[in-house]
Specification:
This protein has 16 helices and no strands. It is an all-alpha fold. α3 runs parallel beside α5, α7 runs antiparallel to α9 and α7 packs parallel to α10. The relative contact order is 0.08.
Amino acid sequence: MENLLAMAAIIYVLITVLAILVGMGVDSSLEILFLATFTEAELKLAHQMMLLVILNCAVVLPGNWFLALINANERFVFARVLSIVKYAMQILVVWVVLVCKGDAVGVLAVQVALNAIVVLFYVVYCRRNLSISCRLVRWDWALFRGLASFSFFVLLNMVFDQVFWKTGQVVLGAVCGAAAVAVYGVVCKVITSAYMQISTGLTSVFLPKLTAVASRTEDMGEINELFIRIGRLQAIMIWGTCAAFIAIGRQFVLLWAGSDFADAYPAIVVLMLGLSISLIQNLGISILQAKNKQAFRSVLYIVAAGLDLVVSIPVSREFGVIGCALTAAILLFLCTGPIMNIYYARVVKLDIKQFIGSVTPLIVPAALAGTATYLAADWFFPTVSWLALAGEAAFFLAFYTLVLWGGWLNRYEKAILAYPFRMLRRRGRVD
């Protein structure tokens, strides 16, 4: 194990160096990409932001080695709580920076600093709680080939995931200017740092369990049961979040980012809808990794990223931010929805028909709660303020919970929802 961990650490270092070199290459190409649409001050700002991105890679990539150790030892509570705290602090501090008239460099610097703090916590936790050491005895080429064959498509998927979400900003910068880039940056931040995290935070903890099941048996019964059970939980969260944002998201964008970013709201809604199927089925990615069948999805993602680049140029020139978001949403829906579902059903042998039949009815309570909140906002929360937004969010949560409990949750889901209240009642009895 020490030898394996040492090899993995070396690989992480090499990947980090490669990422830094690629970042430096992109930084040197900024004038070529944006000279026609950016002013000299905006180009200077772009260089500063690119340097922060490179620094972020230098911090986060090696930190993922420590996070992998934590996840492999199933210390998920520590990792998830730290992640929640980081995103909460990020939202708060970014808001403070914007209120203090900070610019994009300040916002990005906050994110880099928070990532560095989180990585430091990873390092301290591994040293104090896991007592893991690594020592390179020899370079095991057979093991390295096995690691490479498994990790290549995982890495490829991660790289093109970043490419996909950065393509829109690059295209908008080239054809529309810096203002459109700033708006789409807000869109991507909400989608990748909040909406997508709701799904990935839940499914990532199941990879060790799925790997154990996949290595023990070829029978898909246990995996299908888990796929549907977790898919329903994700549907409740994803569709609920999407419905809530449709109802109150415009106020959130205006309060958080300002009136200059009002166009971000419809773009976020479009991308949320396009991603909804993918995020509800996110456990499928862990199943593909457990069965070492992630090549098809990675190649599909490359095709989607290429098509996004080609199509979004004329669409963005004509329709701006909303056109860029709509292009990405349609490609995400087609690739991660119908195409991946066919692959899941025919190759991986997941019971997609039963999955769809189980999760589709959960759209109804989300739609009812979103509609009720939208209508109630005009009556009870007519002003645009953080207090009114909190009231609308509380109304949605209460209405959504009551509707779900009234006939849409099964016994397992009700037990999860009731668990915090049972714990509070037990503590009250003890006191």
